[in-house]
Design a protein that fits this description.
The protein is an all-alpha fold. It has 30 helices and 2 strands.
């Protein structure tokens, strides 16, 4: 729809902008939620009353904390035994249920889950034999030269010579730098897990599109799964499915299916009614309408979902090294734990190489247009790339059988940069140690530790009440109640201290992250060329698995809160840059022209026109920063933090399901509370700007 820009200037350099929808659009086109927001905006037009209420709550907390013990710390008698309930439930689930008891065919849920593991192990064994183990002594795995050639052919088919060169060079790197076998283990897992993730996501996405009831049930579950650090549900997976590659596949499915399902549901829901009605007029059944009309029409969205599935799968498979998944993740974890940082960097680069290849290949497939060929041609001419692949496969395997170096490069022919990285680290420690340590000590002693002490001193009553007040201010009683209960959960489960430590780390990282990302995005949004360049850099860094960011911070700052916060900053800054560019570049041109015609300067136009309209998108970037920072919490626990991530990490070591899930839910609920508040603010801002029609 189009909007009318009304820009006024009162002669005192005070430029105002209102964005009006076309006449008649307001009212009828508003959803019930938007109308509710409008009514709430009208009734909350006195912000000073909320400031007074907030100061009153804070003052009460400061006075009451010295008089009432229950204000200073959440009473232990009030703590809900949710950990014990979860532990009891899983103990009953694993040992207390027996199906077909007394029939000779009895089994427990654990037997069933182990059976699923055995079933999934079969296709995984095939890919591992093909790329890593070999089928027997006489049938080795595919030679590295074969994989390089097939990757080049696939890349050329998908995206031309550039994609072909990227694929070939990436796999040559894996072979030459001595990480081939670990890489092929990871690659084998990805090849089996991605189809599983996409199939489950496709089923869930179709059901979400077809059934509003199913969507209303599954959406909160997806919210929790996407908000909760994946480490939290590694523990119950280990109990039910054991350790190794197959449990890693199942954990990956839990992690990767929600975004795939959401993409597919969004794509199917975006098919125009005209297309669907045309299919119905042709006499299509519901099944035919889905597969022959809606799915082809939503092809782009489906392939974007595939790309999301590929990247989420690789990210999680690396993390699944903590439950015994073999491959690069396991090698990287071992190197980090033993502080062999040169090897860790090589392995980290290998993970990035695989991530970039999979990302570019899946994106190229998403953009590739269907090619139609003459069915009268011979099979070889109808499938030229497949024909070349078969010919190259046979030729390369035959040649490699005569030249062992083409099967697997030995150290004699390979190359490693680990000594150079280690030498560089030694040089940094020798020449920059005092400067780096001075910065580290100053930041810790003067900034981080006082900030941590401040957060840990906040009474739980004050914090919950202020969050609820903010929720009411932004979205009414519903948002206030939901946000208040979500942030109350850590106190009610006895994890308030750890939650405040987490909030201190996330808050500190988020402030730096948001300000840095906003500044970079603001500069990049000024020209189309800079926007494209910044978006390309963001695309590249978003392919980095989260483990990678631990390597440079541990190298420079050792193990400390500063290292964890910088790792969170590096991981979470990308969406802030991306959404800032998206918001500012998305301001309608007529509005900018109208402001320019009124004689506004560039700074006035930015502050009073562009930023107010772009704020909803920018706040979505803030939302993503918070969620990505919370995701990183459990990973930074590997380098010694003392927050909710550390609770999950210690629970993983002892297979304490209740402890892991409760800590994970605390993190998830903190993220969901922030999401509800930011979402309410965005809706409120859109109502004020007239952008809700």
């Amino acid at each position: 729809m189009t909007h009318t820009a009304i820009v006024t200037n009162d002669g005192l350099n005070q430029t105002q902008i209102r964005v009006q929808p076309p006449a008649g659009a307001m009212g009828q086109a508003h959803s019930n939620a938007e109308q509710s927001v409008e009514r709430h905006v009208e009734t909350t037009s006195r912000p000073f009353l909320y400031w007074i209420a907030a100061f009153a709550i804070i003052a009460f907390g400061q006075i009451a904390v010295s008089r009432f013990d229950w204000v200073a710390s959440y009473p232990s008698a009030w703590i809900l035994p949710i950990k014990e309930w979860i532990d009891s439930f899983f103990e009953w689930l694993v040992y207390g249920i027996r199906f077909f008891e007394g029939t000779g065919f009895e089994f427990t849920p654990r037997d069933l889950t182990r059976g699923v593991s055995a079933l999934l192990a079969y296709p995984l064994g095939l890919t591992e034999s093909l790329f890593f183990d070999g089928f027997s002594k006489d049938i080795p795995p595919l030679p590295w030269i074969t994989v390089v050639g097939l990757a080049a052919l696939l890349g050329h088919w998908l995206g031309g010579w550039r994609t072909a060169l990227l694929g070939a060079a990436s796999f040559v790197y894996l072979a030459v730098f001595g990480v081939w076998q670990a890489s092929m283990q990871t690659f084998s897992l990805v090849l089996i897990t991605v189809p599983l993730v996409f199939l489950l996501g496709l089923i869930a996405g179709i059901l979400m599109n077809r059934s509003p009831h199913f969507k209303s049930v599954i959406t909160p579950l997806f919210d929790v799964l996407q908000s909760m650090p994946p480490f939290a549900y590694l523990v119950p997976i280990v109990v039910l499915y054991g350790v190794g590659n197959v449990p890693a596949m199942i954990a990956t499915a839990l992690f990767a299916v929600p975004p795939v399902a959401r993409c597919i549901a969004l794509g199917l829901g975006g098919v125009s009614k005209g297309v669907i009605e045309a299919g119905q007029m042709m006499g299509c059944t519901r099944w035919q309408l889905l597969w022959r009309v809606q799915m082809p029409a939503a092809r782009s969205a489906l392939l974007v979902g595939l790309n999301q599935g590929v990247m989420q799968t690789l990210a999680m498979i690396v993390l699944a090294a903590l439950i015994g998944a073999a491959g690069l993740g396991s090698e990287l974890l071992t190197s980090l734990q033993s502080l062999r940082l040169g090897e860790a960097l090589e392995q980290g680069i290998a993970i990035v190489v695989i991530a970039v290849v999979l990302d570019r290949f899946s994106r190229a497939y998403a953009l590739k247009k269907p090619v139609y060929v003459d069915p009268g041609l011979s099979w070889w001419r109808r499938h030229p790339y497949l024909s070349l692949a078969i010919a190259f496969l046979l030729a390369s395997v035959s040649i490699a059988s005569l030249l062992p170096e083409l099967v697997l490069l030995t150290d004699k022919y390979g190359f490693t940069t680990a000594p150079y990285w280690n030498a560089g680290i030694d040089w940094i420690n020798l020449n920059l140690y005092e400067s780096v340590q001075a910065f580290r000590n100053f930041t810790l002693m003067e900034i981080l530790i006082p900030t941590r002490n401040f957060f840990q001193a906040i009474p739980w009553v004050t914090f919950v009440a202020v969050v609820a007040l903010l929720g009411y201010r932004l979205g009414g009683w519903t948002v206030a109640l939901i946000a208040g209960l979500l942030v109350l959960f850590p106190a009610a489960t006895g994890l308030w201290h750890q939650a405040m430590t987490t909030l201190y780390m996330i808050g500190t990282a988020a402030v730096v992250c948001i300000s840095t990302g906003f500044f970079i995005g603001l500069l990049a949004s000024r020209t189309a060329a800079w926007s494209r360049f910044a978006s390309g850099v963001c695309d590249f860094f978003q392919t980095f698995p989260s483990f990678i960011y631990l390597i440079p911070v541990v190298m420079l700052f050792k193990v400390s809160d500063l290292s964890a916060i910088i790792a969170v900053l590096l991981f979470a800054v990308v969406p802030m840059i991306r959404y800032t560019i998206l918001g500012l570049r998305g301001v309608p041109t007529p509005i900018i022209e109208a402001a320019t015609q009124q004689g506004t300067t560039r700074l006035q136009r930015l502050l009073k026109v562009e930023l107010p309209i772009a704020l909803p998108e920018i706040m979505l970037g803030v939302n993503q920063v918070i969620f990505m920072a919370l995701f990183m919490v459990a990973i930074t626990a590997l380098i010694g933090t003392q927050d909710l991530g550390a609770e999950i990490n210690s629970a993983r070591s002892g297979n304490e399901i209740g402890k892991a899930l409760v800590a994970g839910l605390c993190i998830a609920f903190m993220g969901m509370a922030a999401d509800r508040l930011i979402g309410a603010w965005v809706r409120r801002k859109k109502v004020q700007l007239g952008l809700t029609a």
